[in-house]
Amino acid sequence: MRAAAIAVVLLTTAANVPAENTARGERPGAASAGTGARRLLDAIKADDPALAAGFFFPADAFDLVKDLPVPGRYHRKLMAWYGEDIHAAHALYRDVGSLAFDRFELGRCRWMEKGTEGNKLPYWSCSRNALFAKTGGKTRRFDVHVVINWGRDWYVTHLGPIRN
Q1: pLDDT (tens digit per residue) in 93-132
Q2: 34, 42, 66, 117: which has the highest count of C-beta atoms within 10 A?
């Protein structure tokens, strides 16, 4: 019975892992990152992290990716920092409330093999990404330090600088 239960867990886990996170292939396009960045800008403008919660790497996927005894503990810490970083971004510009989304640019992207950075699964990771917004002829930039893929979609893991 125990072996059968383990087999069910393994099959369920394998079924939940997108093909893009099993073997290196072409890097996913940036469309989902742009969609998420629009929500992120809304959260920054409103000083409300909840508006961009869907652009943060999902907890269930995080549990599959991270090789930690309790991955959820670290995920909650990252989510708290994400909220703090949204509040900090809100305070960057006086005209934050009038900003309109312009574009999102992926930065330097690289394939992270299984076993790197304490991960059980591989993924694409892009650092030094940027969200651009405009108001009154001015362009404002918000750094998005790290986004990673889960399937064809991109998610933030570190909005601000990486903390220990």
Answers
A1: 999 999 999 999 999 999 999 999 889 999 999 999 999 9
A2: 66
